[in-house]
From TrEMBL, chains A, B, C, D:
Pfam families noted in UniProt: HD (PF01966), HD_assoc_2 (PF19276)
GO process annotations (BP): dGTP catabolic process
GO MF annotation list: dGTPase activity
Secretion signal, residue range per the UniProt entry: none
Location of the HD domain: 58-176
Protein's UniProt name: HD domain-containing protein
PROSITE patterns in the cross-refs: HD
InterPro entries for this protein: dGTPase-like (IPR050135), HD/PDEase_dom (IPR003607), HD_assoc_2 (IPR045509), HD_domain (IPR006674)
Length: 429, 429, 429, 429
């Protein structure tokens, strides 16, 4: 059932040096077409327009999450910790490897517009008729469902869910290191080897030995820096706004019966919400970019212009501001409309925020909690990390963030003389 | 004419830490749609199927070549070397930035099939009606032509050509470091800072101070290792063979009048050789992958199968062999034909080779020489490096390489019992 | 006066890759015997007993501080900022290079016992009859005094003092990076290149452009981590306690007329406070270790034992505790005395603390303020960093630290049965 | 007998990230005074005068060799290779840790003068009355002798000797990486993880899987570069010459009955060849430097001058030349004598050489062969690496090297006018 490969397979990986595969089922999963598709989905969406090195795919991240999980479990096994359920190794590794399988092209932008969730697609790919499902089913009839329930966080043993989904899980540890490596920033580095060595299975969850407290602090600071320096970078946000607007406009046109010069199979079904798993698997970033390239020649100037902006990197500029009150906001919209701009497209307000760490953090995206980080002291006592670490306590709950207003600068500057003075000054024109 | 930006612009780069832009013309060139298109062409083609980190684009490499060139010229200017023609700064930086502008999707595979050359396309993009041309023309009427002639190596001052095209030029120095970084191997690292510090303009060419000899040896060894470990990796070669076969088959079908289920604008014109610059600029790897995805459903099973192989990474396996004689080769082809396999597609022999260093190396690809590396000693005497370095002399002219025979393993194994014994054994079946 | 070397000199440096020397006076200063002596003083005192890699000397750190200062000034000159007094280049570089010249062996431990200050010794070496003084005087008669007053922070132009002494100066930036490199921890890394690029001379001080705020946050976090993970590591503190006790005991014996089996010139004069500059320059860590080696055979068992502890790394163990009240403290001391241990030597309480950042930080050691970090926004407005950065504000003034009680574990365990129960339990015996 | 620690101990190491200790005997050996003494012996002798970062000690190298050996054996055990004698684990780890125990201060220079060998001292420390011996004897009566015979290469199982002494052993792999790290050069880096993974125990020796051939090539090239760039650096050689002359002169004076102003216990016995193990263990680099400092004031001007040269880094300069014939050599010596210089001290010729790789390399220093590197192919066939690798074959036996003549430049320049013209020109005066 849990067959080993006759010879260990190895992937060269810039973050972990090597990724080791010893189980046949893992090897087979990597070779499915659904998993190979992740090579065509970038890990950081449109971030490469800000950090040109960030062209890495979800394929490499998925291998990395698998590798970290494998290392954690190996450590647990090597030390024979009684609180680790040894029989969960295989299912944990599969869940780690496959947790991002349902990501689509530029998911963060698409999901908002089409009200889909990549976790749901992950589960459908695991459970419907796919190569991945076939390999999982060969392990046992309920195996696909077990893997899916770990990813959906409903698995019966929370310790397994913890491994790939908590405030310091294999997923986050890999993406912080990986995104730092590929963007080239040095904010995301922390001492992975030390943290892995100090994790312990303990009464149904994973905790950290207290001697690792400073390493965890360092991890949380890295996380904080990565959010503000990379993930929330205003240029990246601008690219994401353009992307979202492309999809919003195209859907609007489609619904209104507009005849596209160019349309291709899964895109239509994306717009009318009738995507099958098969369609979904054809949706990758190569396709999205190809469609955008074609749409640069659409008759609808709004859509064509947005596509040109994205592909040729002519992004919206932004101004930083205090939270605008209703009156100011309507006067800006009104002004844009009067200038012949489109207030629903040429104007977007953005307020990114993230908590560096929160005791019980209601995870906005998933609507589910991410368990806090718990320390285990020399006397086997547990404590939530912000009880022990002054620096973490002092930043817990701290949220930072400013309002950014995005808009097409050239168009606006062109028309500056027709704008009311207070709005013109707001935009520095 | 040579306008500085009011404020230096900076790109975060994982290889050089930062790329600095001080000239307005460079900034404007980076923002053209033709240059932004390089984000959609991978630097190492299909290598990401072997080294999953190698997903970086020609965009980042082009910035890197620019940055190295900028550093070399800054050093020359800082020391006011009389042999450096100071007026060549701007044209050199433009040529460095734009030297790869004409690369297409998976160029190495496409070029062989369609008999095109990316250098020619680079020149057409520089000289025809493009955004890049417009910016260059604003400098002076003959500026586009000057940039082009540096890239074509016909420029009147060889020292400028040397900068971006010699056996140790900004192009090679960047790609060795960059490809090593993104694949994650540590073969490609050498002491760039030391080499840059020891370069000298000298009587119309660029030479290296003799005290840098060991650093140059190290660079040549890195180069040797990168060729054999990365660029010529048999799995990469297998992917390239599949790619080449896809284009070969599609062209064959097109010429024969086959009705494609899916065809899209520039692809048709690629097949009948009528591409314009506009068409060419639409050809990127997103488009190629989209077309392959669609072709997985073509009626022509050969084409469909090759596309599936590429996208789902079901590559040909290979055996290593001595150079096969004519008799063996025909018996293998005959056997393949008898088994119902296609000898022109299911069988390909490959013999990659590279010289670690050659005194006068006729550069196969370009049919033009790459000048040798010349050392300058304390008494201002010049010497070709292999005269001074025992280790380089001992490997000069050394070429290594073995024949690899690529084939579809599953199909063959399936039919092993019908193969002649000596061929079956050759394939280890 | 400000003579350039005919050819730039270069030192290979693991932290900055290379250190560049262009001025003859710098080159000559490095070659003085007083500066070469810094090779025999470790940068981190006894820390190598905790982190075995930390064997680097003040020599390499001094070169590093010089190099960072050189880079900052080069940037100021390249951009021709009017607020930078260009004539201060040479004196600034000399002060950067020489700022630690007066450090003695294990200074932190020695200074407390002998009430000396390395800054005072630095000034004496600069101003009295030394090779360094001779070279500085050759620049101009008042040059030695100018260099000294920068190091003493009394120089007339605070911007120059700022360079090497503020909350983010060349000194701190080098030691954080260097100590992280040699210990092997990855806490001390931050984006030096970015910070250097965003420093600006502004109205008599050095400020940071606001766009560098996150990089400064990262620097402060690195600093915080280095303090707690490296500089205040309990094992290091234990080594320092042993060192201090060796010097304390030896001085005590010397004052009491004890006849040492082994005594060597500058050590006697150290004890009676009659050190000359010449003597002081002979005091290095080689001498200290040699003396300790000889003292392992002294008749005074307390001194001999402390020396053995230090050289053979048999350090005191420690327990962590709340601040002990007077009653507990005397009962422990009393217990130690009754057990035949020496309460003044076998018992030491330690409470290390550091502020991650403070708005106006009265620098404990020097009794003088270190100026805060000031940001310069796009409208040329200044703001203290904790006004802008939420995370820095939230940790400002935060000080952490616990009491540690150090003691000889073997001796105590041996006598555990004779200890009062509450004290025995306190020590976990 | 082979007791595990209740909890794994960990050392932070810049090269291997962490060094893991699981066995009690290893932990106890590290804590002996003889092993702690290695902290006071630099790994690279006087090299820190050339590369200021090279201040690391044999202590950290010894831990590194232990760690690499531990990793190799773990891999063998994890895969349960039948050709690995599992019972040899403990003795191998001890030999790896202790192999350099007998190194003295600046051993390379001392050994030549006093005709001692650090290997002999290592064995004496293992076998005579020391803390190390006591711990080893506790394992079993013959255990000290077994460890010693591995280090002396006379152990009955060559595979164990291979681990720490062959052309690619744990010793060399650690020192190349470590010396590269601390000097800051990037020549010494190779893919340790890959090599370790591909080592195999095979019929009494350790071989490398053929797929690791390029990684081995890279290792050999690193080795070659490190020899020429670091170990044989002419400035380092100059420091070593000065060191050797100090010891030579002091011995000469001692033998002639000269009354030293300063002499200290083990030094006298070093000169008359009566050192005991106890004396030897007191000989460390702190002591050597202290003695040199005192000797700067000796009446013998030759000795005093050499000590000043070493401590203040006033080294001999050198000229590069072809092998001088007898006539030239005597005329130079004669000229030096006539100028009042001392031909036996002020003139030294040096010809460093190393083979990048040799099939059967008679190891000059030890007078014993280091076994060649053997590859194991997929069909279990063995081949010496130079049979398979073109590049290694082409450099095998290649030896490079030039004659350097070292001399005191200031003295010579001073007297240049009195020198015969051909000699003056030879020295460029």
């Amino acid at each position: 059932m849990q067959q080993s490969l006759s010879e260990e397979k190895v992937f060269k990986d810039p973050v972990h040096k090597y990724v080791y595969v010893q189980d046949e089922v893992i090897w087979n999963l990597i070779n499915t077409k659904e998993f190979q598709r992740l090579r065509r989905i970038r890990q950081l969406g449109a971030t490469y327009l800000t950090f040109h090195g960030a062209e890495h795919s979800r394929f490499s991240h998925s291998l990395g999450v698998y590798e970290i999980t494998r290392k954690i479990i190996s450590q647990f096994e090597r030390n024979a910790y009684p609180d680790w359920p040894a029989e969960e190794r295989q299912v944990s590794l599969c869940a780690a490897l496959l947790h991002d399988l349902g990501h689509g092209p530029f998911s963060h932008s698409i999901e908002q517009i089409f009200d889909t969730h990549h976790e749901d697609w992950t589960c459908r790919i695991l459970l419907e008729d796919t190569e991945v499902n076939q390999i999982l089913r060969a392990v046992s009839a309920d195996f696909p469902q077990r893997v899916a329930s770990i990813i959906c966080k409903t698995y019966e043993k929370p310790i397994v869910v913890n491994l790939i989904s908590s405030q310091m899980d294999a997923d986050r540890m890999d993406y912080l290191l990986r995104d730092a490596y590929f963007t080239g920033v040095n904010y995301g580095t922390f001492d992975l080897e030390r943290i892995l060595r100090l994790l312990r299975p303990h009464q149904g969850k994973i905790v950290v030995k207290e001697s690792g407290m400073h390493a965890v602090e360092d991890y949380l600071m890295s996380r904080y820096q990565m959010y503000w320096q990379v993930y929330f970078h205003p240029v990246t946000r601008s690219s994401e706004i353009i992307l979202r607007q492309i999809f919003r406009r195209a859907k609007e046109l489609y619904k209104s019966g507009y005849q596209f010069e160019f349309m291709i199979a899964p895109f239509g079904r994306l717009f009318d919400g009738s995507l099958t798993v098969d369609d979904y698997l054809k949706l990758d970033e190569a396709l999205a970019q190809t469609v955008f390239t074609q749409w640069m020649a659409e008759r609808d100037e709004l859509l064509a212009g947005l596509c040109r902006r994205f592909l040729n990197r002519r992004l919206y500029k932004y101004i930083t501001m205090e939270e605008p009150d209703e009156a100011l906001w309507s006067s800006i919209r009104k002004c844009f409309a009067e200038l012949g701009l489109h207030p629903d497209y040429h104007l977007e307000i953005d307020f990114p925020f993230d908590l560096p760490y929160d005791v019980y953090r209601p995870d906005a995206k998933e609507g589910r909690e991410r368990p806090p980080i718990v320390l285990l002291d020399a006397f086997d006592q547990l404590a939530e990390i912000s009880d022990k670490s002054d620096i973490i306590r002092s930043i817990t709950g701290l949220h930072q963030g400013r309002y950014h207003l995005y808009y097409p600068e050239e168009e606006l500057r062109h028309k500056a003389e027709y704008m009311p003075k207070h709005i013109r000054e707001l935009f520095g024109l």
